[in-house]
């Protein structure tokens, strides 16, 4: 089996198009098509359904898992042979929820770019943790910083930060002057909520359901920053991550209101594919991020690095 053919196969699997795969690999489309055809002939199966959108067959999905492992082993061998140092032109992609990019990563990235100017970074800012996990599992991203909890049998996670989700209202809202309310006091208030497929929304829905209520959503969004501005403007109220609203609470643009018997929080953490090998450039960034939380050794034990 030709390693180059596997590389072309993974590129098509990740992009869903032969033309995009060829562009990423800096080769012609016929070169990619020929390599896939030879691989299919060698294995005696079809790996893709050809059409407007190229989709993996059942056999193709099986091969992806093995091809990713082979790719990891090749990377690991290359690092050991090369002495484990970063090289000019090294590049990698990772994912992160927008709150992490805005509030948790800027200083880490500034130091990393200064220390490793030869490494090219690409950051996938995901609309949801689920989207980012899909990128990680498909080997399109080395790792991701996501909202937890998130479970998948091929995923490993490490929580790094507990982020409270207080109830916040605009300064002119009738509840702004109250330190604490009951669940029934807010059940019919207009809520600005995360989309139903997000971890943060699931947390809110589960706690309301346990109390026998359903929040009245007047707007559903993916961006906590946009939600914060709408709550400040008085469009509705919301449970928002504290890292997102801390400045607004300090300035008075938002008011925090306690809810009796209710404490909402999420965790932000690192997610990576089970058995994933990380090269020196990736390890350096992950460890720089985890160092501020004292979690470097725990991560090394979890990954065997």
Number of helices: 13
DSSP helix fraction: 40-55%
What average pLDDT do the residues reach?
90
Spatial strand sequence of the major β-sheet: 4-3-5-13-6
**Tally of distinct domains:** 3
> Main sheet, how many strands, which sense, barrel?
5 strands, mixed
**Residue ranges: pLDDT <50 for 5 or more in a row?**
none
Report how far the terminal alpha carbons are from each other.
29 Å
* Topology order in helix (H) and strand (E) letters: HHHEEHEHHEHEEEEHEHEHEHEEHH
How does CATH name the architecture of the largest domain? 3-Layer(aba) Sandwich
Structural class: alpha/beta
CATH fold-level name of the largest domain: D-Maltodextrin-Binding Protein, domain 2
- Tell me the fraction of residues in β-strands, as a range: 15-25%
Q: Can you say what the CATH homologous superfamily of the largest domain is?
A: Periplasmic binding protein-like II
What's the number of extended β-strand segments? Answer: 13
| Gyration radius, in Å | 23 Å
Name of the level-1 CATH class of the largest domain: Alpha Beta
